[in-house]
Give the backbone structure.
Amino acid sequence: MMIGKSIEGMIEMDSNLGYLRESLSNHLEHHELCQRIYDRIENNSYKDEEEFVRDLNENEIMLLNLILRTEIGYAKQEQDEKRERQLSDVYELLI
């Protein structure tokens, strides 16, 4: 029972960072910093979103704040509640 809960938490974390990675991919051409953040997600095995956020510098956090607000708004507009929730979980850690 406890193992199932633990695996569920890991899947949720992977999903949150997966949605973030996907959102960043929409901005790679416009921001070099997005590419660095995207690469960091791809190349590191973060145990959770908090560890990922602690690994960001101030400029990365500011850029992600802007991008996530846009992406969360888009998810709301498209009525994609799961995407909205996943991105909001990461956004809340940034603020």
Summary: The chain has one domain: 2-94. The first helix runs from residue 2 to 25. Helices lie at 2-25, 32-43, 49-54, 58-77, 81-94. The chain has a mean pLDDT of 85.
